[in-house]
Design goal:
Helix content: 40-55%
Number of domains: 2
Shape: elongated
Distance between the termini: 50 Å
Bound molecules: S-adenosylmethionine
Number of helices: 13
Strand content: 15-25%
CATH class of the largest domain: Alpha Beta
Largest sheet: 7 strands, mixed
Strand order of the largest sheet: 4-3-2-7-8-11-9
Number of strands: 11
Order of helices and strands: HEHEHEHEEEHEHEHHEEEHHHHH
Structural class: alpha/beta
CATH superfamily of the largest domain: Vaccinia Virus protein VP39
Radius of gyration: 22 Å
Oligomer: single chain
CATH architecture of the largest domain: 3-Layer(aba) Sandwich
């Protein structure tokens, strides 16, 4: 079976020296050099021979090779053309890897269409294929990658990724905690999220300034189907956390300022039993969904529109 080279720190630094390059900070080039953790990430992704794996950030291809050993197909995206070249050499023994040399994101809110097209293509090759994301993500774009994929037309069944610990804490945060916010609610409303391992900077080369974590996110399409309008929920949650320190009532009044009166807002809140001193950060995911539905119904009634949108999007 094809195997990728063991990319220890001495191997990586020698390869970089040979081509006269240094890891590029701007692109978050911190390579995972602990071989046990590379294996742990690949194992936690629970890949099998039906899977189409998307990896963002090929780097030198150490994870790409591990994924290719287990999955039907790997699509790996690398923004840096020098790394793309080096990884192409590392990975030439595999015949189930498609390498893309580009930015994985079109912009902050959208995936690159070429990446989506590649996933769709490989998903159609055979019945029963399952799409998964697995990667040591570039930290500067980890949040848009995760949230855009969850909103894309093709959502991965699981995402097993290395991210900054601070972001992992936000993803798993419980109501009332300092890390709890729009992202926690948005992701937890359609997924289960688990921190697999916290990692110190020393398992990367070069060392980042912060701790990291491997997380495993499992998406449940049936939870998604419970929403009348998931985009509305997304916009609502963001708007409700926009002024974190304010009472929920005043945040809602300003979120709906061109659409609902203060009396409308008060009616919705009191029907759900939220008093004048309630704060959004105290609401759990279910309560947030109920609140969103109630506001949406109110908007339907007041505006007469069947699919109202939030006018004041943050
Ligand atoms: N997979 C390697 C590993 O595990 O050691 C490298 C991971 S490194 C944290 C992130 C990689 O993502 C870098 O190779 C970097 O050049 C690449 N990258 C950064 N921003 C990117 C983007 N927007 N699209 C695609 N690749 C990107």
């Amino acid at each position: 079976m094809a195997k990728v080279n063991r990319q220890t720190v001495s191997y990586l630094s020698r390869r970089f020296e040979e081509v006269g390059l240094n890891p590029n900070k701007r692109h978050g080039q911190n390579f995972l050099i602990d071989l046990n953790l590379l294996n742990l990430l690949a194992k936690s992704a629970q890949l099998d021979s039906n899977d189409v794996v998307l990896e963002i950030g090929t780097g030198m291809g150490s994870l790409t090779g591990l994924f290719a050993e287990q999955a039907a197909q790997v699509i790996t995206v690398e923004i840096d053309e020098y790394l793309y070249q080096m990884a192409s050499e590392e990975l030439e023994v595999f015949d189930n890897i498609q390498m893309l040399k580009q930015d994985a994101l079109k912009n902050k809110n959208q995936f690159a269409p070429e990446v989506i097209a590649a996933i769709k293509h490989h998903m159609q090759v055979e019945d029963g294929r399952v799409f998964k994301l697995a990667a040591n993500l570039p930290y500067n774009v980890a949040t848009p990658i995760i949230s855009n994929l969850l909103r894309s037309e093709i959502v991965p069944k699981t995402m097993t990724v290395t991210i900054q610990k601070e972001l992992a804490d936000r993803l798993v945060a419980a109501p009332g905690s300092k890390d709890y916010g729009a992202l926690s609610i948005w992701v937890q409303s359609i997924c289960d999220v688990e921190i697999v391992r916290i990692m110190s900077p020393k398992v990367f080369w070069p060392r980042p300034k912060v701790d990291s974590a491997i997380i495993h996110i499992e998406h449940f399409p049936e939870r998604r189907e419970q929403f009348e309008d998931l985009d509305f929920f997304y916009a609502f949650v963001r708007a409700m956390f926009f002024h974190r320190r304010k009472f929920m009532r005043s945040v809602a009044v300003s979120a709906f300022k061109d659409q609902l009166t203060k009396t409308d807002v008060d009616q919705v809140l009191s029907e759900l039993g939220h008093g004048a001193d309630a704060r959004t950060e105290q609401l759990d995911v279910k309560q947030m969904q109920l609140l969103c539905n109630a506001f949406r119904q109110k908007l339907v009634k007041v505006t007469g529109e069947r699919n109202p949108k939030l006018a004041n999007q943050s």
